[in-house]
């Protein structure tokens, strides 16, 4: 009832709204949305470029008007000052299409209220009395018109007068007069003033221009014809289904929600039918206004144009779900991108529809429920909440969507104190302000955090960041300079919540905790690096609050001030405080003892010319400062000593700052003291003078003692080193062995000594001996004259560059003169003969291998040379040869020598040695003779060894089916380490052993010919293949069959597939798998005895279906005398009859009652034997009769042998309509239950009779 009342109220409200707003009922729900779309579409129509329309959407496929691209140049085309548009629209004249004239067909009437009537402009015509000039001008205009595009396309057929004149060849100030006609009888003519708009129908027009004759008369001259096409913009929008489609008259789909041009006064289209949707088509625009379109018999819609038209196609679902929107005062709800202005809207069944909720400014969506269940997968964009929901399968069901819309609030506390101190970390300050000022309980969103906001203060020069530092002299202040500060907190917002900001004023106060620094008494530490000493001191220092509680401060931030030198020193500890604690300072006296130090020597071995890796001496700690003294003996046997004092200052030695000399290096002090040269034994004296410079500030006696120890050690290693002058600031560079001793010199450390070794080896890498001059011919031959000026001897080269004077180079000569005399010496021999020159080096910085060369003095001879005198090759099936060249007397190559090959060591007894000019292939030893004209022959040797690698031939496997022959050519042979030339010979020997007459496997092999094996050192291994014959598949399927219960089974048969010869398959039979002959389905299995082993049997079973036996049952009529016991109820079986030994399981009962008359007998077949079925339901109507007790009448008996009984009859109550008889099964007459029930019924009847009679007597 309530729903009907609500529906009635809604209907009244809707009717009133429609009456007031004039909105059609069918469009009411989406009117505002569609109005916006109409405005958008209209705007797009006015700015649509003609050339961008699809040709498939135009009824007329003529060329587009190319003059539209010129419409941007119309700013001077309107002399009357008519309103101009952008020049990019559909109006080719480029003016605002407000009609100055109204047309009906081709006739027009002038309208008085033209927009340009307020600006009158007189255009004087210049009369040309020269007819020839007039004719030339007209001809020029006619040529211009005829050469223009073939047709003009105008929106609605409209064009302004000025634009028309311009198209006809006129120019500013458009003073010409023109007329036009379709039939050359009815003419329209331009007017003298103004810029009216003309309307043209589609068709071909004749154009003429007015000219004056020399006599003053008027003459109209043809300037050409033009085909004009008027077009209209048509938009088609589809709503209600994404599957909706509109087809044009050519059955082409129109792009969804498109706008296009129609070059006709009508447009036809069809709309795709979608199941479970009704279609409503409406058109708006033109003189007809909004109207409903109805399709013809072929489903075709037609639109008639007199203006632009928009067609709206609505798919209205017939199966839908109703969506109800909850309270949304401060938000808009969109379903499938449509604004929902009513509480209810429809969506399709079985679809996911999209919901978008946009809050009003200042509000946010905190959540959405659908049917009181929260939506968990909300997504937000620009504060709008979106989600998808499944409509379900229930037609006309209701889904209730309730958004939770909340007002955003940034709540700030007033008159609160914010802790702040100078130098506070700006992030900590922001946190202090945020945590103190923001009232999260009353803020929405309530999960706002410090990362979500920006905090600024009023500096006096606008809002600034908290760490803002104003320029000096600017009227502004830093944060915290005032007792109170005005704060602005800006919430940045996110995709769900819009930005917010709020202001408040806070008080500034330093609320940090008071602190004190506590230093233990009697601290003694060992001198070390500054960091190590600080860490040790920090163990004795704590920062506490005023109550003595240790505070969790970072001790590394404490500042320690003291004189870091051995002795008692005053220590000052300062704590700068932080954003939680205030600063504090304390002092104490500490004792510093000398520290331990070590010095290590980086022992190295380098080659002459290389540099030692720095540092050589390393002190640990580094500030202990080590100096190093290097002594040794060079490869030339000279003593050497050096020390580098450039990196050690007087302060380093003193361990503290010394005035004047403190920052100078020891080397600078030496120059100041005039000690430019010093021997090893004088080093202690140098440091004693440095002690004098340092004075009492520091005692370096330990350093001097350490230096003396080092000198004593080195004197034992290199005796006499004390008297060697030291190379100051240098390292050894000459080859030799050196001892490096380091000693620490910082007086704050106990002196440490370290010793190592430095070795500079003679350079031999890239160092070589070279001859001073090379002999420039192959045979090192010189003439006696050349020998006289030749530079014999040698020198050292490093990386190809000659080294200057190098001591130790020796040159020796030995040889035989042309007369046979043996000679030797250190000077070169220059008389005819053959000699050997040897260059060597002994000692110095270089180590090089001696070099030797032979040279001949005398005339040159021609020779033949092999590239290689002996060539070795391994058999690979390819030719192997040698190469020899002949050279002239000057050593120039003359050409390649001819070669002859003779096999002098055959690999086979079947091959005799022969000479051959071709390079050999087979293994063997060949004598090779090189011959060239005018040259002595040369003999070389070619050895082709047998192939060493184990050759392998692997025969592939093959498989065939029983009865199929093997093609040996298809067997693949794989080889390894076999020459390509030998594979074909092996392939020719393939053979297969065995028979194809039965399944099984046998070998496939090959034989290696002797012509092949003789070239291989090892016997070629043959891996035989296998030919496998597999069994052939045969399928035997048992045929399925049917039989009736109780009848003889049909003969079982089968089908064979896969073979043609059926005689060799064995003995085939079909047997029933399960025992039994009752109704059901039984499996028939195929059995094969004496199976042929050459076949693979697939035995597929069939089925035997035993159907129920159909019988007919007739209920026997029964008669009893009133008052007597009921006779047994029986029935007779007819039809196919019962199978011997079966029982049907049928039970009979009759309608209750003992009065004389006819009664129905009922049959219960609920326990009917499952092997049987009744052909028809037997009738028991009036088959039981009770008659009066007359003499001689007795109950009817069973007709034994023909009828069946179910035993003792049970009396039942009267049957009520719609009930089922309850009967007791008494199939066995001997059961005591039956007798007991019968006795009870009889006793009840007797008691009732006696009681009735007794009442009558009373």
Note the quaternary state here: single chain
Can you tell me the residue ranges where pLDDT is under 50 for at least 5 consecutive residues? Answer: 1-144, 908-912, 1207-1235
The total count of strands amounts to: 84
User: What's the domain count?
Assistant: 10
The CA-CA distance between the termini, in Å, is 64 Å
Count of individual helical segments: 14
Write down the overall geometry.
Answer: extended
Mean pLDDT: 81
Summarize the biggest pleated sheet. 9 strands, mixed
Radius of gyration: 63 Å
Question: Percent helix among the residues?
Answer: 10-25%
Look at the helices and sheets and give the structural class.
mainly beta
Protein name: MBG domain-containing protein
InterPro entries: MBG_2
Keywords: Membrane, Signal, Transmembrane, Transmembrane helix
Pfam family, one: MBG_2
Summarize the structure in short.
By secondary structure, the protein is mainly beta. The chain contains 14 helices and 84 strands.
Can you lay out the helices and strands and say which pair or pack?
Elements: H1 2-21, H2 31-47, E1 101-104, E2 107-110, H3 131-146, E3 151-155, E4 158-160, H4 161-167, E5 178-181, E6 188-189, E7 197-199, E8 203-212, E9 218-239, E10 246-248, E11 258-262, E12 266-271, E13 277-284, E14 291-293, E15 301-304, E16 309-317, E17 320-325, E18 331-335, E19 338-339, E20 344-348, E21 352-359, E22 363-370, E23 373-374, E24 379-381, E25 384-390, E26 398-407, E27 416-419, H5 426-437, E28 453-458, E29 463-465, E30 484-491, E31 500-509, E32 515-519, E33 523-526, H6 530-538, E34 541-545, E35 559-561, E36 567-575, E37 584-593, E38 598-601, E39 604-607, E40 617-620, E41 626-634, E42 639-643, H7 650-654, H8 666-672, H9 683-694, H10 701-717, E43 727-728, E44 736-744, E45 753-761, E46 767-771, E47 781-782, H11 784-789, E48 794-798, E49 801-802, E50 809-817, E51 822-825, E52 833-841, E53 851-857, E54 863-866, E55 870-874, E56 884-887, E57 893-896, E58 898-906, E59 915-916, E60 924-931, E61 938-945, E62 952-955, E63 958-961, E64 973-976, H12 980-987, E65 991-992, E66 1000-1005, H13 1010-1013, E67 1021-1023, ...
Parallel strand pairs: 3-9, 9-16, 17-26, 27-31, 33-37, 39-45, 42-43, 47-53, 55-61, 62-67, 63-68, 69-74, 70-75, 76-82, 77-83
Antiparallel strand pairs: 1-2, 4-7, 5-6, 5-8, 8-9, 9-11, 10-12, 12-15, 13-14, 13-16, 17-20, 18-19, 18-21, 21-25, 22-23, 22-26, 24-25, 28-29, 28-30, 30-31, 32-34, 35-36, 36-37, 38-40, 41-42, 41-44, 44-45, 46-48, 48-49, 50-51, 50-52, 52-53, 54-56, 56-57, 58-59, 58-60, 60-61, 62-64, 65-66, 66-68, ...
Helix pairs in contact: 9-10
């Amino acid at each position: 009832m309530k729903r009907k009342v609500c529906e009635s109220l809604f209907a009244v409200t809707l009717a009133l709204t429609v009456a007031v707003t004039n909105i059609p009922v069918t469009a009411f729900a989406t009117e505002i949305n569609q109005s916006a779309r109409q405005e958008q579409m209209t705007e797009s129509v006015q700015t649509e470029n003609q050339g961008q329309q699809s040709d498939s959407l135009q009824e007329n496929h003529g060329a587009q008007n190319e003059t539209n691209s010129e419409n941007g140049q119309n700013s001077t085309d309107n002399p009357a000052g008519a309103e101009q548009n952008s020049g990019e629209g559909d109006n080719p004249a480029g003016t605002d299409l407000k009609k100055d004239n109204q047309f009906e067909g081709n006739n027009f009437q002038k309208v008085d209220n033209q927009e340009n009537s307020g600006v009158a402009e007189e255009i004087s015509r210049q009369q040309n009395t020269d007819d020839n000039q007039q004719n030339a001008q007209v001809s020029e205009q006619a040529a211009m018109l005829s050469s223009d595009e073939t047709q003009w396309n105008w929106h609605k057929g409209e064009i302004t007068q000025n634009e028309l004149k311009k198209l006809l060849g006129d120019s500013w100030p458009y003073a010409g007069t023109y007329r036009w006609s379709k039939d050359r009888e009815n003419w329209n003519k331009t007017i003298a003033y103004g810029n009216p708009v003309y309307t043209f129908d589609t068709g071909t027009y004749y154009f003429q221009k007015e000219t004056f004759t020399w006599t003053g008369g008027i003459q109209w001259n043809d300037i050409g014809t033009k085909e004009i096409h008027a077009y209209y913009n048509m938009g088609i929008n589809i709503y209600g289904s994404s599957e909706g489609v509109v087809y044009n008259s050519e059955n082409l789909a129109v792009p969804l929600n498109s706008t296009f041009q129609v070059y006709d006064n009508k447009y036809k289209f069809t709309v795709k039918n979608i199941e479970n949707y009704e279609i409503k088509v409406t058109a708006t625009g033109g003189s007809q206004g909004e109207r409903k379109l109805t399709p013809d018999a072929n489903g075709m819609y037609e639109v008639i144009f007199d203006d632009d038209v928009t067609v709206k196609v609505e798919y209205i679902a017939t199966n839908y779900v109703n969506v109800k929107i909850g309270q949304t005062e401060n938000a808009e709800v969109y379903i499938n991108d449509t604004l929902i202005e009513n509480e209810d809207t429809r969506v399709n069944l079985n679809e996911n529809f999209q919901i978008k909720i946009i809050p009003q400014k200042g509000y946010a969506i905190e959540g959405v429920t659908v049917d009181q269940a929260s939506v968990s997968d909300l997504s937000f964009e620009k504060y709008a909440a979106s989600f998808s929901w499944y409509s379900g399968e229930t037609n006309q069901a209701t889904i209730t969507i309730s958004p939770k819309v909340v007002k955003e609030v940034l709540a700030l506390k007033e008159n609160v104190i914010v802790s702040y101190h100078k130098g506070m970390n700006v992030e900590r300050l922001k946190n202090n302000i945020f945590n103190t000022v923001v009232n999260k309980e009353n803020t929405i969103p309530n999960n706002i955090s410090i990362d979500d906001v920006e905090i600024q203060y009023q500096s006096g020069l606008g809002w600034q960041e908290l760490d803002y530092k104003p320029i000096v002299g600017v009227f502004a202040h830093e944060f915290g300079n005032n007792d109170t500060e005005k704060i602005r907190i800006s919430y940045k917002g996110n995709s769900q919540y819009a930005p917010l900001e709020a202001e408040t004023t806070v008080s500034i106060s330093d609320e940090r905790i008071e602190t004190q620094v506590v230093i233990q008494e009697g601290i003694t530490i060992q001198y070390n690096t500054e960091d190590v000493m600080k860490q040790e001191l920090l163990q004795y220092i704590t920062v506490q609050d005023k109550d003595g509680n240790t505070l969790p401060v970072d001790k590394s931030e404490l500042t320690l001030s003291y004189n870091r030198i051995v002795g008692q020193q005053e220590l000052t500890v300062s704590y700068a405080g932080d954003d939680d604690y205030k600063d504090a300072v304390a002092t104490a006296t500490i004792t510093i003892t000398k520290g331990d130090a070590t010095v290590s020597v980086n022992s190295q071995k380098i080659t002459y010319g290389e540099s030692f890796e720095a540092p050589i001496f390393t002190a640990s700690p580094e500030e202990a400062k080590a100096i190093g003294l290097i002594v040794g003996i060079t490869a030339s046997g000279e003593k050497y000593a050096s020390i580098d004092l450039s990196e050690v200052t007087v302060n380093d030695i003193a361990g503290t700052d010394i005035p004047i000399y403190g920052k100078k290096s020891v080397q600078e002090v030496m120059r100041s003291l005039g000690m430019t040269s010093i021997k090893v034994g004088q080093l202690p004296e140098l440091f004693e003078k440095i002690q004098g410079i340092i004075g009492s500030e520091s005692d370096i006696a330990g350093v001097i003692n350490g230096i003396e120890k080092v000198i004593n050690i080195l004197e034992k290693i290199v005796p006499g080193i004390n008297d060697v002058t030291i190379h100051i600031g240098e390292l050894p560079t000459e080859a030799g062995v050196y001892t490096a001793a380091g000693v620490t010199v910082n007086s704050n450390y106990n002196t440490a000594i370290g010793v190592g070794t430095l070795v500079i080896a003679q350079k031999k890498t890239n160092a070589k001996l070279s001859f001073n001059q090379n002999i420039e011919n192959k045979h090192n031959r010189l003439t006696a004259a050349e020998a006289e000026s030749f530079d014999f001897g040698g020198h050292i080269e490093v990386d190809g560059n000659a080294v200057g004077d190098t001591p130790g180079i020796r040159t020796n000569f030995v040889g035989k003169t042309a007369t046979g005399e043996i000679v030797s010496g250190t000077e070169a021999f220059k008389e005819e003969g053959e000699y050997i020159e040897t260059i060597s080096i002994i000692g110095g910085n270089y180590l090089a291998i001696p070099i030797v060369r032979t040279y001949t003095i005398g005339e040159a001879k021609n020779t033949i040379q092999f590239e290689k005198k002996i060539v070795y090759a391994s058999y690979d099936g390819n030719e192997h040869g040698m190469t020899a060249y002949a050279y002239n007397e000057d050593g120039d190559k003359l050409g390649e020598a001819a070669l002859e090959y003779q096999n002098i060591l055959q690999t086979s007894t079947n091959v005799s040695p022969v000479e051959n000019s071709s390079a050999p292939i087979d293994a063997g030893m060949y004598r090779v003779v090189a011959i060239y004209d005018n040259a002595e022959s040369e003999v070389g040797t070619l050895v082709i060894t047998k192939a060493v690698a184990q050759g392998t031939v692997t025969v592939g496997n093959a498989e065939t089916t029983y009865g199929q022959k093997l093609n040996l050519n298809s067997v693949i042979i794989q080889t390894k380490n076999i020459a390509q030339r030998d594979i074909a010979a092996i392939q020719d020997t393939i053979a297969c052993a065995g028979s194809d007459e039965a399944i099984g496997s046998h070998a496939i092999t090959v034989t290696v010919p002797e012509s092949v094996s003789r070239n291989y050192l090892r016997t070629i291994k043959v891996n035989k293949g296998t030919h496998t014959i597999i069994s052939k598949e045969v399928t035997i399927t048992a045929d399925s069959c049917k039989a009736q219960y109780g009848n003889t089974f049909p003969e079982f048969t089968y089908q064979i597939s896969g073979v043609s010869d059926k005689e060799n398959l064995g003995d085939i039979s079909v047997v029933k798998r399960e025992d039994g002959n009752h109704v059901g389905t039984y499996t028939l299995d195929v059995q094969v005895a004496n199976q042929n082993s050459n076949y693979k049997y697939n035995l597929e079973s069939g089925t035997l279906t035993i159907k129920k036996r159909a019988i007919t049952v007739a209920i026997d009529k029964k008669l009893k005398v009133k008052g007597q016991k009921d006779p047994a109820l029986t029935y007779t079986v007819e039809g196919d009859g019962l199978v011997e030994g079966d029982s049907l399981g049928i039970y009979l009962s009759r309608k209750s009652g003992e009065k004389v008359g006819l009664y129905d007998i009922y049959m219960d077949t609920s326990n009917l034997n499952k092997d049987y079925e009744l052909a028809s339901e037997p009738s028991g109507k009036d088959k039981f009769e009770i008659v009066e007790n007359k003499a001689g009448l007795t109950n009817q008996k069973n007709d034994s042998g023909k009828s069946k009984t179910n035993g003792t009859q049970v009396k039942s109550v009267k049957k009520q309509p719609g009930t089922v008889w309850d009967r007791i099964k008494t199939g066995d007459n001997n059961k005591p239950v039956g007798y007991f029930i019968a006795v009870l019924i009889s006793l009840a009847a007797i008691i009732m009779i006696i009681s009735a009679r007794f009442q009558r007597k009373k």
